[in-house]
Amino acid sequence: MRTFVGLEIPEATRDLLSGEFLESRPLLTDARWIPPANWHLTLAFLGPTEDMQLPELNRLLAPVFGSFRRFDLVLSGFGLFPPRGRAKVAWAGLERSRTLSELRDAVVRECRLLGFEIDDKPFFAHVTVARARRPWRRGVRKAWLEAVECRRDVLFEPLRGCLVESILGSDGARYRMVQSYPIGR
After folding, report:
1. Are 46 and 3 in contact (CB under 8 A)?
2. Is the pTM of this model over 0.85?
C-alpha cells in the first residue's frame, strides 16, 4: 500500500472552506475538484508501506500526536502549484505555525527510524483542493487567484493525526483511513 501521515481537517472547516471558492470553481477549467471529505494536511509522505510495518508505525506515531497540546491553524489564502509557470494544482495555504512545524519534524523523525525515506524539501503547509490533467493557462491562473483572494482567514483546531492509504486510480486518488491518533491528552 502507498501511505502518508497527515492531519484531518475538521468537517466544519471543510464546509466553510469549500464555500469560499464555490463561485470561482468554473474559472479553473478542466479541474478535478477533490471532495472535501478527502482534504487533509500531509505531514509526511511515506510511499510504499508493508502491512507488517503498520503496528510499529502506530506504536511510534500515537505518542507523537498525543504529546502535543491542541493548537490552532489559520488558513491564509489560496494559490497554485507551481507558483510560476504552468500550474496544475490548486491549494489553500496555512499560516506558519511553530507547533505544526514541531509536530511535522517529530513525525518525520519517527518515520525515518522505521526506514522511511522522507524528502528534505521545505515543508509548506497546504490543503490540495483541485488538480488538472493539463496545466491551466496563465490568464486562468490570474482570474482564479483574484476571485478567491478577498476572503477572510479561517481558524481551526486539528483534533487528529492520521495514517492514510492513497489508492491511485484513473479518476484520481482515493483515500482510506488506516489509523487515527488523537492530538493532546
Report:
1. yes
2. yes
Question: Could you tell me if 160 and 182 are in contact, meaning their C-beta atoms sit under 8 angstroms apart?
Answer: yes
CA 119, 123, 168, 180 torsion: positive or negative?
A: positive
Give the span between the Cα atoms of 178 and 152, in whole angstroms. 33
Write out pLDDT tens, residues 27-71. 888 889 998 989 999 999 999 999 999 999 999 999 999 999 999
- What CATH number does the domain containing 177 carry? 3.90.1140.10
Q: Which of 84, 74, 62 is nearest to 145 (CA)?
A: 84
CA distance 62 to 161: 9
The label of the residue with cell 525515506 reads 117
Range of the domain at 44: 2-182
Rg value, the chain, Cα: 17
In the chain, how many domains are there?
Answer: 1
Q: Give which of 131, 128, 89, 108 is closest to 44, Cα–Cα.
A: 108
What is the separation of C-alpha 168 from the centre of its chain, rounded to a whole number of angstroms?
16
CA distance 55 to 14: 30
3-state secondary structure of 48: strand
Report the candidate in 70, 76, 122 with the shortest Cα–Cα distance to residue 95.
76
